[in-house]
Amino acid sequence: METTVPAAGRADAPPRRPGVLLAIACAAQFICVLDTSIVNVALPPMQESLGLSATGLQWVVSSYTLTFAGFLLLGGRIGDLWGRKRAFLGGLALFALASLAGGLAQEGWQLVAARFVQGIGGAVLVPTTLSLITTGFRDPRARARALGLLTAAAASGSALGGVVGGLLTGLLSWRWVLFVNVPLGAVLALAAVWALSGRQPGHVRGRLDLPGSVTVTAGTALLVAAVILGEERGWLSVPALGCLAGAVASFAAFVAAERRAEQPVVPLAVLRVRPVTVANSLSALTGGVLPAMMFFLVLYLQQVLGLDPLIAGLALAPPAVGIALGAQVASRTIERIGPARLFQLGTLVATASLCWLSRLEVGGSYWTDVLVPSVLAMAGFGAAGLPLTVTAATGLGPERAGLASGLLSMSRQVGSAVGLAALVAVASTVTASAGAGAEALTEGFGVGLLAGAGLQAAACLGGFALPRRSHHAG
Description:
Strand order of the largest sheet: 1-2
Distance between the termini: 20 Å
Strand content: under 5%
Largest sheet: 2 strands, antiparallel
Number of helices: 18
Order of helices and strands: EHHHHHHHHHEHHHHHHHHH
Number of strands: 2
């Protein structure tokens, strides 16, 4: 059986250096999420420098997504069992060293391999930083404010990947989209050694459930691989269907393994905790809407309005302010209005803003047709994200904070991969049927954004199943 190891001093004592802990967590979340898209602008010079094929270029992006999504649950559980400080430093070292190797790559396969390893490091870091916040900040209001900032940091990383990647590639070279993680990693490691205690609240002793860990990691990775291969080779292609079949088989083996395990990586009883299950389901449902919105807008600004790639990236930096504002307003109101109402309010704002964005025109204005509705949409995403994080990440108690964080991170990442693919497929189908040129592209983007609004509206209805009042474990 697992046994909880008490923290030094009072179990509910605040962190010794709460400001530093929060800064470390936010920075780690930001760079890990940023690296899902920071390489996108750098792909052409990468291809020219390393002689990458079109397939190899796709895997520079997809390799990180694959291992990042696949190892999130295992990464969170490692923090519970082996200590969150140790897990954080180990994941950070792996992430930074893989980034260094990728920046030094002389062959395409070396870059792809480095991105695979980088994704594993990120998969340990993201749930570990989330569990550090949920266990380190015991006061409900302080925890809500900290989670609001963490939510804003992660969402800003998703929104600013193209901006940061464009600046680094344009001012230095494509290698700096990877090299930049090395000094950042060194600073974060020194800060973590100084600020984090050896034993965080909720640390447990136990053995890692190897069969459960392997099967759930394989199942998640194969599911994401099926989405990637479906986009690349067709949804009915043999590789895509083979990965999907493998994912189903792996998840079936996972359930069987967890029924027999003495210390399961995911006790099946966890899946019967309604608030946790609902929050993760809603997170998966809406996970692809934000990246799809940014994807459509980047293409609209470049291919329809004719902006330079770097200018287009900079034009989409202001919406990140909307994310931060939405998350901060949410952190101050969640105690008063509760997770359910706050989530529904945020999704309604996002839904209305996406409907506004869907009215894009070939001769549209950046200021009124893109900037204002995108900032409002981001504010809605930020406000809706916090109640899901609070509900999912604190619903299992401090001894399973890593598990809860890993589940939430995994649902978001898998939802992001599947949702983005689905919305892009909708837009591409409409564009193909509408013909060629800017009119067809704009029509496809509009329908894709409208489909994203539909997902947000469906999530708003699902919000009735969230708790009406905040629940704070531990």
